[in-house]
Amino acid sequence: xxxxxxxxxxxxxxxxxxxxxxxxxxxxxxxxxxxxxxxxxxxxxxxxxxxxxxxxxxxxxxxxxxxxxxxxxxxxxxxxxxxxxxxxxxxxxxxxxxxxxxxxxxxxxxxxxxxxxxxxxxxxxxxxxxxxxxxxxxxxxxxxxxxxxxxxxxxxxxxxxxxxxxxxxxxxxxxxxxxxxxxxxxxxxxxxxxxxxxxxxxxxxxxxxxxxxxxxxxxxxxxxxxxxxxxxxxxxxxxxxxxxxxxxxxxxxxxxxxxxxxxxxxxxxxxxxxxxxxxxxxxxxxxxxxxxxxxxxxxxxxxxxxxxxxxxxxxxxxxxxxxxxxxxxxxxxxxxxxxxxxxxxx
Amino acid sequence: xxxxxxxxxxxxxxxxxxxxxxxxxxxxxxxxxxxxxxxxxxxxxxxxxxxxxxxxxxxxxxxxxxxxxxxxxxxxxxxxxxxxxxxxxxxxxxxxxxxxxxxxxxxxxxxxxxxxxxxxxxxxxxxxxxxxxxxxxxxxxxxxxxxxxxxxxxxxxxxxxxxxxxxxxxxxxxxxxxxxxxxxxxxxxxxxxxxxxxxxxxxxxxxxxxxxxxxxxxxxxxxxxxxxxxxxxxxxxxxxxxxxxxxxxxxxxxxxxxxxxxxxxxxxxxxxxxxxxxxxxxxxxxxxxxxxxxxxxxxxxxxxxxxxxxxxxxxxxxxxxxxxxxxxxxxxxxxxxxxxxxxxxx
DNA sequence: ACCCCTCATGGAAGCGATTTCATATTGTAA
DNA sequence: TTACAATATGAAATCGCTTCCATGAGGGGT
Lengths: 346, 346
Description:
- 2 copies of one chain form a homodimer.
- Chain A is an alpha/beta fold.
- Chain A is 47% helix and 15% strand.
- Chain A contains 14 helices and 12 strands.
- The first copy, chain A, has a 6-stranded parallel β-sheet with strand order 2-1-3-4-5-11, with helices on both faces. Chain A has a 6-stranded mixed β-sheet with strand order 7-6-8-9-10-12, sandwiched between helices.
- In chain A, helix 10 (226-237) crosses helix 11 (251-263).
- Chain A is elongated.
- Chains A and B meet through helix 4, helix 5, strand 2, helix 6 and helix 11 of A and helix 4, helix 5, strand 2, helix 6 and helix 11 of B.
- Chain B binds a DNA duplex through helix 2 and helix 4.
């Protein structure tokens, strides 16, 4: 660029202080002077440097968003919600794709610190990572608020926006039970993530309420990805007494299940029942009626950003306890939870 | 934070200049001094302010990415490629979701200017927008390189990474023709976008090569979204002589077509043929074999970022002509291009 | 022993804003 | 007309770095 506030000042025959006042809408500027300055700004095509301003005021309008996998539509939705709120309040977003790599996550947090970001929205890679935890704590201590999204971190000392994973999962499994299912499998999410754990807890809780014993052979460890779910399905379906229903703990997992079923001629909602966590819009376009536990994902991002903004605005006020928001889930039944009982009862 | 280079200097009993040299790896520092400084840095937990550095050097490591719809998986893939390359070279990404709104686009470009971004990756909202065009030109003139991705802007004066839309489209339609189709419909993309136009040109070219007259009743204007495509399909299929094949010009459009077909009992690859532009991974999980014109989307983002980096590094060198990269497309045939001829021939 | 060159380091001037404090100007009441 | 308050403006310090220039300390060649 090359053109700065002094050039404008000179052109308008005023001091830089006055130009600054005009830019920032200070009331103590004569209309006439203001007009003169504005005109110089236009004439020279001047845009104030946010860098210089930030350095001077010690205060940026930039926040960071750390996300484990930007390709996952679920996270894209969150980002979409975030960016809506950010735009509304004039914040800019640094995006950091941690690619499920804790090392990268650390590096990005360093970058965030260097950039003196005003706040951080984080979907941590690993709920138990000590380094991440320490780094985030130190951000908070330095007055840079942190809001976790969807996944938590060790203890409850961070603000966060999560969903009712436990309840949603319990509801789904209860639905299976009401349908008459007794051999209900679950394909779990990673153990080091809140959603994985809570959904697993919900599963156990539902069984326990119905006094159905937990049978570990119906519990498969997944990783929120398609491949592993497919393999898990294969194992389940080859059992002597295969499950009659499967609860899949995220969107990609559901896809793996569906693929297996289709490839092996199992009709979903007849031969095998399926409920997934998180809706998959596409499925409806292709005529697959999958029952799911859904939540408003974009809204999660929006709320997280709102919460962050609230924290940023009242920074310095003494730490009110971490506030956690839980998004409600909704069980959407489309038929895949049904089954032809005859098949199941051996 | 509060702790700066002077604190470190004082702690290590050297000058700020020396600390700066250590940080930036200048060779003119004694090992012993260097060690002392490093230790102070550790001890105080010092992170240099990128803001101050940027202001001082007039040079940030931040680039901007303007994208029309972050929820669209196609754009997520591009972002993914970008962020991979950015990470590799230590660049940070500001993301701006323009939400298909030219007004927002302008505002974001202002913000980008204020932040003194080093370079810009842009998927313009509207290929013909005058304001966007002028703003981007002025960035380039000010030494801030701009690389367009997927969509272009009026003339060829910008760097850009596109794909072989024309060729890909022509190939798809030619494939239909070889299959024996003669009534081939197209659901077009928006007229103000390069992909829309080029794919439309490819369609016409293929027909013309085969000396098939262009029949406008088989040409439907779409908008790259599902709903409109669905409606277009409805119109096409209700015609007296409906098309036997449909070429759909992007991923969402294909979904609209598929949904229509499924809902109306049309078997794809038998009753109606379909080829889409851009692959949809999910479809295979659910057993729908859609033939598509595909390209490496993530790679597009990667290449765009690489090109941008090249430009940024040799900024100031006299303007070599704009360089345009065209990603090859690949026709992937999975069967949906077939048909039961008997149905088609009236 | 002298001179010159190289290398390590410090002093201080920017970079481009904001902001405090001081000053000049204007208005108004006595 | 004087005096004091309110208002408009400028000078200069500051934010935290980088970097140019100056200076001092060694080292080698003659």
